[in-house]
UniProtKB/TrEMBL annotation:
GO terms for molecular function: phosphatidylinositol-4-phosphate phosphatase activity. The chain crosses the membrane at residues 531-549, 561-578. Keywords: Membrane, Transmembrane, Transmembrane helix. One of its GO terms (cellular component) is endoplasmic reticulum. One of its GO terms (biological process) is phosphatidylinositol dephosphorylation. InterPro entries: SAC_dom. This is Phosphoinositide phosphatase sac6. It comes from Nicotiana attenuata. Residues 131-459 form the SAC domain.
């Protein structure tokens, strides 16, 4: 299916990093006869050199193997080189190996920092702390041979000339995680070192259906236009780019045929946010509501250009804060709904509750016509196009994680059954459920996909994942949901602000500038408030534990009902105090940054 890129544009797959006192040298060691890359440790400047400089007693280098250069980042007093130090092969994409970043590390080019003022040194140290957070970025994938940013349909539609370009030149910039960090290397025309990296998910399994072997792949591609963490990136920006926008592509290969089905998810495309204040569910705030029609129109115009027809499924509650947000969304959608854009509200919690997710069949019955008419991408044994996917289903809830993943897994299952009938593997009434091995693999497949996307946005695996994984709700799954919800609450209030700063730094959303009033922020308050919160949280959990323990003994002694009420009251009292003092706990030091 894919033509190999021009050999002169091939990426280096293994390199040796030489750490000299005054420079770094990246030497290809994969058998390529290319030049070495020299990076100055004084100012981060780069150039190609023919050979590694000679070592001496005063220039003894450290040496390590690396598997890719992600890019460089400019801070206040120096530049920093980010490289891949460990990788793991997780499968293949059209015959080409796909790797997951297991470990990455930054190397400072900041010798000029020695002559910087003390305040600037202190600020640089704070930004370096953000780079330490960035080193732990989850869900990064890459290939040296094939463009992971493009779906199978878009890969096939590349022109002959485009197929000969470097991978970064072919890439969809929306899904190029290191787009900003590659800018300096792009300017220097360092194509063999320019490795495109995607944030998302990659899973693959094979299963037997009779005598046939089906190969199934599921890829998530996270958009970099409004990336970030759950409570710190909500809604859309003024250009219509939304938070947690992810393209999910399900690909099957069977009997020489290749079929691909693409879905997308993304936050409600209004200008809205939730300010963390230690409440479990902060108030939804819609800003500049007068701009809503224009923002929604821009968002769906972009979707139509990239995917064709659009069916937008809104899964949020009809009442309460979610209902108010959904109402404004529905009103704004009136300006864009037409032949090529459809909108459907489906109150997931009202219809399915917390356990009856099989009622999603009600939703499918309402969208089946769009689903079938807009098809999927299909290649025959000769690599010729047989079908094109003409439209996309866009699904959202509030976080676009839990309800969304349950819904998307249902649509992926329906499409796989549809494709298997088309290829003559299934008869008209046959389903995935009638093949236990395929059914189990498919459930685990989508559950892992949802967990990956959720961890990147919220810090925890997806809720309701037990239904996706097992086909029904379980007691352990409900308990896990409670724990993950509590963990999200903690991360939202005390961790994700810093993580958001790290994301913004890596994506170039802010360019750092030196100002005269820069003063390092004290960390003491942050530690004290975090410790206070942890103590309060522990007391609440202890109270709830004893309340539940007492309730279980009520049938033996009614006095336990009184004990349960006392313990529950203590927990609620502490929670009320924490909520009332939310500002004290949730202060987040702001960074001195200028919008890019």
């Amino acid at each position: 299916m894919m033509e190999k890129a021009d050999p002169s544009q091939n990426l280096y797959t293994r390199m040796r990093l030489w750490e000299f006192p005054d420079q770094y040298v990246v030497e290809p060691t994969d058998g390529s006869r290319g030049s070495c890359l020299e990076i100055s440790r004084m100012d981060g400047s780069m150039k190609l050199i023919d050979d590694v400089p000679e070592c001496s007693s005063v220039r003894v280098p450290k040496i390590r193997t690396i598997f890719g250069v992600i890019g460089t980042l400019k801070l206040l007093a120096g530049s920093y080189l980010l490289v891949i130090t460990e990788r793991e092969c997780v499968g293949s994409y059209f015959g080409h190996p796909i790797f997951k970043v297991s470990s990455m590390k930054y190397f400072p080019c900041d010798h000029s920092l020695k002559n910087s003022p003390a305040e600037q040194k202190n600020m640089e140290a704070q930004f370096l702390a953000l780079l330490n957070v960035a080193e732990r970025t989850p869900g990064l994938y890459f290939s040296y041979d094939v463009n992971l940013t493009l779906s199978a349909q878009r890969l096939h539609d590349l022109g002959d000339e485009s197929k000969l370009l470097s991978l970064w030149r072919q890439a969809d910039p929306r899904f190029l995680w290191n787009n900003y960090m590659m800018e300096v290397m792009i300017d220097k025309k360092l194509d063999p070192f320019l490795l495109p990296v995607v944030q998302g998910s990659f899973h693959n399994f094979q299963s037997a259906i009779g005598k046939d072997i089906i190969d199934v792949t599921l890829i998530a591609r996270r958009c970099n236009r409004r990336t970030g963490t759950r409570m710190w990136r909500r809604g859309a920006d003024s250009d219509g780019f939304v938070a947690n926008f992810v393209e999910s592509e399900q690909i099957i290969q069977l009997k020489g045929y290749t079929a691909s089905f693409v879905q997308v998810r993304g936050s409600i495309p209004l200008l809205w946010n939730q300010i963390v204040d230690l409440t479990y569910k902060p108030k939804f705030e819609i800003v500049r509501i007068i701009e809503a029609p224009r923002v929604v129109e821009r968002h769906y115009l972009d979707l139509r250009k990239k995917y064709g027809n659009v069916l937008s499924i809104d899964l949020v509650n009809k009442h309460g804060g979610e209902g108010h947000l959904s109402e404004k969304f529905a009103n704004a959608m009136q300006h864009v709904v037409g032949e090529d854009v459809k909108y459907l509200h489906f109150d997931f919690h009202h219809i399915c509750g917390h356990v009856h997710f099989e009622r999603l069949s009600i939703l499918y019955d309402q969208i089946e016509d769009f689903f079938i008419k807009n098809r999927y991408f299909l290649l025959n044994e000769k690599g010729e196009k047989v079908e094109l996917q003409l439209g996309v289903v866009r699904t959202n809830c509030i976080d676009c994680l839990d309800r969304t993943n349950v819904t998307q897994s249902m649509l992926g299952r329906k499409m796989l059954e549809f494709q298997l009938r088309r290829l003559g593997i299934f008869d008209a009434e046959e389903t995935i459920s009638s093949h236990p091995n395929l059914d189990e693999s498919f459930k685990i497949f989508w559950a892992n996909h949802g967990d990956d996307i959720s961890i990147q946005y919220s810090g925890t695996p997806a809720l309701k994942g037990d239904f996706v994984r097992y086909g029904h709700r379980t007691a352990q799954g409900i308990l896990s949901d409670g724990w993950n919800a509590l963990t999200r609450y903690y991360l939202n209030n005390f961790v994700d602000g810093t993580k958001q700063d790290a994301v913004d730094l890596l994506q170039g959303n802010y360019i750092l500038s030196v100002s005269r009033d820069m003063k390092p922020s004290s960390q003491k308050g942050g530690i004290e408030t975090k410790a206070s919160f942890l103590l309060a949280l522990a007391l609440i959990m202890v109270g709830l534990f004893f309340a539940m323990l007492s309730l279980r003994k009520v049938r033996y002694d009614l006095r336990n009902l009184l004990y349960a009420m006392v313990w529950a009251s203590i927990s609620l009292g502490i929670a009320a105090f924490v909520k009332a003092n939310g500002r004290m706990f949730c202060n987040r030091p702001s960074l001195h940054q200028s919008k890019r």
